[in-house]
Amino acid sequence: MVNPWLAMAPGTDPAERSRAVRRAHEAFVADGSVAATVRPVVAESWRRSAHARVPLESTVPIDLTGTELEEYRRAHPLARAMPVVRELLGGIAEDAVHLFSVCDDQGRLLWVEGHTGLRRRAERMNFVAGARWDERHAGTNAPGTALTVGHAVQIFATEHYNRRVQPWSCAAAPVRDPHTGRVLGAVDLTGGDHLAAPHSLALVRATARAAEAELSAARPYGAVPRVALTALGQDQALLVVDGRRTRLGPRHSEIMVLLAAHPEGLTGERLAVELYGERADLRSPVTLRAELSRLRRLVGPLLVSRPYRLCGPVLTDVRAVADQLAAGDVHAAVRTYRGPLLPLSEAPGVRRIGRTLEDALRRAVLDCRDGGLLRRWADTPWGEHDLEVYETLLAVLSRDAPGRQAVLRRTERLRAAYGLGASPPRPPARCPSRPPAPPTRPCPAPAPPALVPHREGRRPLPAPGTRA
């Protein structure tokens, strides 16, 4: 098929296609093999789902409900785009027999609307506002996979990893901040086999672009920086200059992160040390100058020399997290933090900046002692082996809190993996000799993380079987 994001080529029999993919899914579950009939985007998603140990038959968790959900989506940037989304996808929902939804960048459904009968059916698998439909929780599905790969995609019937979702088909497209390029969430169409046709993919892509245009028009002139750099949770940074997006290579990503963190500029010698560390003296200055020359061809007058620096303010997601922490808004900082800074980078300066930011954010989450924040942190790849986070979460949960037993089991497994034995006994819920515990909210405002050489402090234990 010419377009790898489409579920089926025109003229394909949906029933026959569904049977073929179901057989391939059963084979993958049995021995990990992937048949040639499975699209590469689906095969890679199946592998991610298996690695995340997504259950084959389960109901996705619900993260947000009630007032918390209302407040969260009222403050979300995509709320401004909902009128245009409803106009494009909702006007024909009853006649076309489909649902449309909008999720945030973590895969949480914020709005689910459309055909009344389908909504009742979808509720049985928790396809509802507040539920978590990223790949780590729901397996292969259109909104979760679109967020992961950063591209519009269709998922047809048995291509879903979770068998409970296989009666459905869907198409979704990511929505980006028009000024920074950061993914804000995704728009999705969900329904029957008819959504595997090319028009549904085109429709969600057009809706996503219309939502971005709406967000662009809603911003007052001059309120958004001209230059933005997104580098958290991705190996290649995204640079946006006046709305033009450029995906940088690994070395150029490192240079831009370092220069953005040092607006006063860096000499060639200092930049070489930040990039190469102890190997700096082995690298010819010509090599660094060549890299900078190639970068200048990409970014133009944004990069100047003597010393090397970026000409003008640059909005980075690293600074956004730091500013949110400085303001005491730990919830916003956790939402903005999409993962370690350039995870594959070995540049000492980049690793130091990333470690300093992660340490400050992690400590703020621990100090908040907020069950929701702790759960969210523990549910990430960078927090799932953090014993201190799990022990703190266990301490703040009441004995009858939903999911507490799962947290307790996970804590015991981590303690056993680290050779620490059983967890110490938990103190009584009420102790007459102690004053009541202070409320968990609002979170205390932590000191802003300085992007300077990292001072070693207490770090989470490494994942079992990995090096410290």
The overall pLDDT, averaged over residues, is: 86
Please, what is the CATH homologous superfamily of the domain at 14-218? GAF domain
Strand order in the sheet with the most strands: 2-1-5-4-3
Distance between the termini: 45 Å
Q: What string gives the helices and strands in order?
A: HHHHHEEHHHEEEHEEEHHHEEEHHHHHH
What is the molecular shape?
globular
Structural class: alpha+beta
Architecture (CATH level 2) name of the domain at 14-218: 2-Layer Sandwich
Number of strands: 11
Instruction: Report low-confidence residues grouped into runs of 5 or more.
Output: 425-441, 450-460
CATH topology of the domain at 14-218: Beta-Lactamase
Provide a count of the helices: 18
Compute the CA-based radius of gyration: 24 Å
Instruction: Please give the largest β-sheet.
Output: 5 strands, antiparallel
